[in-house]
Amino acid sequence: MERLLAGQLKPMIPCTLKEAFEKVNPSIGFNIELKFDDHIVYQQDYLIHVLKAVLHVVLEYAKGRPIIFSSFQPDAALLVKNLQTCYPVFFLTNGGTEIYYDVRRNSLEEATKLCVEGGLEGIVSEVKGIFRNPGLVNKIKESKLSLLTYGKLNNVPEAVYMQHLMGIDGVIVDFVEQVTEAVCKLVKKPDEILLEGEEKVQNRPQFSQRELSFLLKLIPELIQ
C-alpha cells in the first residue's frame, strides 16, 4: 500500500499492534479485528495460540484504552471471549450477502444464535444484509445484542440516517467527519420547549415493516 506524500508515492511503514498502542492518542478506541483465512479450517490449538499472542500485547499496552474485538471467524470470536473478560467481542458477518462453508457465517439469524449462545456482545453486519432484512433488527435487539454495520453504503449519509431510524447502534465509515456532518443535518433536534403536562418523546420515528420496506427502496444502491 502506498500513500501520496509531498507529490510522490511513498510506501507506508508497517505498524505493529504494540506500536499502535504507543503512538495513537489513548483516548481513541480500537476495534481489533482478528483476521483469518476464509478458506482454511483452523484447529482450536492454533487459534488459541494466535489469540493469546494478541491478548498478551493488548493486556500489557492497552492501559485503559476503549477496545472491542471482532472477527468473521466464529470459533475465534468465541475463543477470544472465553480467554478474557475485559473487552467486548463482536461477531462480523456479511449478513447473508455471501455464502461460506461454515453456516454460522451465512445469515443474521445464525449470527444472532452464535452471539447469544457464546455470550458475545453484538454483531457487526454488512449494511446490505440489514437493509435486505430490516425486520431482523428488532429481533437482534430483543436478544440484548448491540448491532453495528460496515460497508460502502455507510459512506452515503442517507443510508446512515436510515440506520439511525432503524435503531442501529453504530456504523463503520471511511469518511467519518464528512458523513457525521451530513447526517447531523438530516437528524432533527428535539424541541426543548415543552408545554405544561407534555412529556418529552424520543426523537426516533417508529416504522412498521411495510413502511421500512418502502423507505429502503429510496436508496438506489440497494436495487443493483
Structural overview:
- It comes from Solanum commersonii.
- Its EC number is 3.1.4.46.
- This protein has 224 residues and is α/β, with parallel strands linked by helices.
- The chain has helices at 17-23, 44-61, 74-83, 108-118, 127-132, 136-142, 157-166, 176-186, 209-216, and strands spanning 2-5, 8-11, 30-33, 67-71, 89-93, 122-126, 146-150, 170-171.
- The strands form two sheets. Strands 3-4-5-6-7-8 form a six-stranded parallel sheet. A two-stranded antiparallel sheet has the order 1-2.
- Helix 3 links the parallel strand 4 and strand 5.
- The protein is globular.
- The relative contact order is 0.09.
Summary of the model, kept short:
With 224 residues, the protein is of the alpha/beta class.
Shape call: globular
Structural class: alpha/beta
Low-confidence segments, given as residue ranges, are 1-9, 190-203
How do the helices and strands follow one another from N- to C-terminus? EEHEHEHEHEHHEHEHH
> Strand content of the residues, in percent?
15-25%
What is the tally of beta strands?
8
User: Mean pLDDT score, rounded?
Assistant: 83
Strand order of the largest sheet: 3-4-5-6-7-8
- Percent range of helical residues: 25-40%
SS element count, helices: 9
Chart the SSEs and their pairings.
Elements: E1 2-5, E2 8-11, H1 17-23, E3 30-33, H2 44-61, E4 67-71, H3 74-83, E5 89-93, H4 108-118, E6 122-126, H5 127-132, H6 136-142, E7 146-150, H7 157-166, E8 170-171, H8 176-186, H9 209-216
Parallel strand pairs: 3-4, 4-5, 5-6, 6-7, 7-8
Antiparallel strand pairs: 1-2
Helix pairs in contact: 1-2, 2-3, 7-8
